[in-house]
Each structure stands twice: as C-alpha cells, then as structure tokens.
Design goal:
Shape: elongated
Largest sheet: 7 strands, mixed
Number of helices: 18
Strand content: 5-15%
Length: 432
C-alpha cells in the first residue's frame, strides 16, 4: 500500500481541502519532485511551501512515521536533505541523523482511489481495467500504445546487444542467434538460442557452400545425431536407411577437426508440437537460409519493405526432410517450407527488432524509423493476448499495435504493475 501512497503523491490525488503539517503549518505542494525507484529518498527535488518558507529538497513517504526508524533512515546521511515527511499515520516524531526534526504532512489515500486499486490487484479477468477501456480517448490510447511499442523494441534491443556482447562484439552472430531463438516459436526458443551460441560461425562459414556439411554441423551441434536422441521406435529405421549415418559421419569429422561441443539433445521439446515445428524441420530450414546467405546482417539491412523481408526469410527444409519429420520416420511428400504466418512472426520478432537494434547501435535514425514503419504496415499478430484486448474494446490494426498490447499484458498486467500504466491511472482516477 505504500506504493499507492507514492502514486497518490506523484499524481497529486490528495483529498480536496487545505493541507497542514502535524504541527498545524500550511502546506502547498508546488512540485512533488522526481520519483526515485532506487536507494535513497522517495522523491528528489520537490518544491513545497511550509508556512511562509519555500523548501526545495527531497520528500520521504511512509504509511507510519515509525517506518522511518524501521528502515534505518535516522542513521543514514543520505536522508539529511529531506525537507518533508509524508505519512498516513504520524505515530512518532521523525528525526534525521544530524538531529533535525522533520515537518510531517499527514494525508489519507482517497477512498475511491484505494477501492479502485484493490479492484485492479484482485481482478480475475484480464485486463483488470477492462471496464473503462471502451471509454478511453483515442489520443490517450494512441500515445500509450506508441510508448509501449517503443518500450518493447528497446527491450528486444537490449537482448540483442547482450548477444552481441557475448559473441565478442559480433552483431552478425547476434542476428543468427536472434533468428534461431525465434525459430523455436516459443516452446523451443531457449534451446534454439543455446544451440546457436554453440556454433562457431566463422568455422561453419568455411563450409557454407556445401549444404550437406552445414546441415551436418547444425544437426550435430543440436545433439540430434546421437543414436539415443532418436525415439526407440524409429532408431533402427534411421540407422538402416543411411542418411542419418552419413550426417553423423560428416559431423564427427567436423567435430574432431574444429573441437565442436554439442548441446544436450534432451533440451529439445517435441510434445504437443505439430510435425512441421519439430526441431529437425526448423534446423533444416535454418541450414537452407544460412547456406543461401539469407542470414547475412548486411542483406537484412538492405530490405526496405515487408515483401523484401518475406523474400529474405523464405526457406524450405533440405531434401531428406521433404519426406521425413524425424530420422527414420517418413511423411508425405511436402515442401516443408516456412508458412506465411511463421514468416510474418519472424519479421516482427527478429528482422524488425534487429534493424532497430542496429540503428540504435550505429546512431542511424533511418534504420530505426524504417523499423517503426514496417511494424505499422505489417498485419497484427493473432493470438490469445490480442483477442483478449479486442474483446475489451481496443482496435488492433497493425503489428505495431499487437506488439504494444503484448508488452502491456506481460510487463504491466501480469505483474499487477497498474500504477505505471496509463490505463491504470485512468482507472484509479475514475469517479464511477
């Protein structure tokens, strides 16, 4: 509840009427200050008039005055520049470490704000503020969605930057790792990223013109060329038909030559996956993309339109996988190419964030602007999160909108972080 008190102070949602310190001095809040979420006083550089004196300094808030001592502020020099203590219950005098007695402003959280906050915290339906969404102004919705879209791209940029850092500054490797992660389409994302990190791209690049060798290295590094990785019912057939043995022989040679270390095959998940999503198929599709040099970062950055990106990411599995979905298990003849829906997901979650991240890294505004434009021209994603928001009355027109709403649910709704949400703010101040 102390966090709600911070919110009330920050947005001046205080009860109407004159404010007074516990000693009876008039208080005027000119500027509540800058909210500090790190160590130290709660608000920096506030401006308050106490009696006839204008004070500029920090403000500390507690539900009870005794909390000042419980938190050890009376022995902390960083609280000596506090000019006002705000509390709901002045149950003690407040004294700084240098012996100064602070004026205290006693405020109560407005009953309506408290009631709405409790509703947000305990609502079973997502989003908790669904009642007011149909009545929100279009300008407010648009501005918040734009901020969320940027926030999501910045979050993805940080993940990409960290991949580049782990790869000795190689943004080329970071692109491949990001692409690989998203080829996991959620359920195998972690395994795909770990797999991509295990592949020394400079080494593999020497064999890039030979698709069979690329596939051998890719499958081998995934741990999928170990006989134990094949389900018992297919193991004998896989070994007898020859392709598995050829790949394995090629990989063992490469492994010895380059000192390769595969990941554990147990990391891959197959349960509840459609065959076209099996790691075998996705790795074979990635091998084709890599072999055809469609995973080059420079090629990605040359793409101007969504159609350019679709052409870049268009791929199909290698020949063996046209008639198989795992080693030793045949399937009907199929191109086993990446579907249009999967391609769009890769554009939204890999290509566009990569373009934005490189733009940030190189201080290239043109690349950043292009990323935003592409999101606005891509169709919105279709999933349960987007459906939920649409049922609440929000219009979702583009991938930019859907990305914003995914960010909203995961980073705000799921965390019950309504106090940082603009929709939550409108809900708290509503007078219904």
């Amino acid at each position: 509840m102390e966090e709600l008190l911070h919110y009330v102070w920050k947005h001046r949602l205080l009860p109407l009427g004159e404010l007074h310190t516990s000693d009876g001095l008039d208080v005027e809040i000119i500027d509540p200050g800058l909210h500090n979420r790190n160590a130290g006083p709660d608000f920096f550089n506030a401006k308050v008039r106490i009696g006839s004196t204008l004070w500029v300094g920090n403000v500390e808030l507690h539900l009870r005055s005794q909390d000042w001592y419980a938190h050890g502020h009376d022995h902390d020099n960083s609280y000596n520049n506090v000019v006002l203590h705000v509390t709901c219950n002045a149950d003690a005098d407040v004294v700084t470490s240098d012996g100064r007695r602070l004026p205290q402003l006693v405020v109560q959280i407005p009953a309506m704000v408290k009631e709405h906050y409790e509703e947000l915290l305990h609502a079973d339906r997502y989003p908790p503020c669904y009642k007011i969404i149909p009545n929100l102004g279009s300008l407010l919705v648009h501005s918040w969605m734009a901020a969320l879209q940027t926030e999501r791209l910045e979050q993805k940029t940080e993940a990409i930057r960290q991949r580049a850092e782990r790869s000795n500054g190689s943004w080329e490797d970071a692109f491949f790792q990001t692409l690989a992660r998203n080829f996991g389409f959620g359920i195998n994302g972690d395994a795909f990223e770990l797999w991509a990190q295990s592949i020394p791209m400079n080494t593999v690049g020497k064999h890039r013109d030979d698709l069979f060798q690329v596939e051998a290295i890719f499958m081998g590094q995934a741990g999928l060329l170990e006989p134990d990785s094949i389900a018992g019912s297919h193991r004998e057939a896989a070994i007898s038909e020859g392709y598995f043995n050829r790949l394995r022989k090629e990989y063992l040679y490469m492994q010895h030559k380059f000192g390769l270390q595969p990941i554990a095959h147990q990391l891959w998940r197959f349960m509840r996956l459609r065959p076209q999503n099996f790691p075998y198929i996705r790795i074979a599709q990635l091998a084709t993309l890599y072999h055809e040099r469609h995973t080059n970062l420079s090629t990605l950055l040359e793409c101007k339109t969504a159609d350019d990106l679709r052409s870049l990411l268009a791929t199909r599995a290698t020949p063996y996988w046209q008639t198989h979905y795992c080693f030793g298990a045949e399937s009907t003849q199929s191109d086993k190419k990446l579907s249009a829906a999967s391609t769009n997901l890769l554009i939204v979650n890999t290509a566009i964030p990569m373009m934005f991240a490189v733009g940030r890294h190189r201080h290239n505004e043109e690349l950043c602007d292009r990323a935003f434009e592409l999101l606005e021209h891509m169709k919105a994603e279709k999933n349960h999160i987007i459906t939920m928001w649409q049922e609440c009355g929000l219009t979702v027109k583009s991938a930019g909108d859907s990305q914003a709403l995914i960010q909203l649910k995961r980073e705000y709704c799921d965390r019950k972080d309504c106090l940082r949400c603009r929709f939550g703010y409108e809900y708290l101040r509503a007078t219904r």
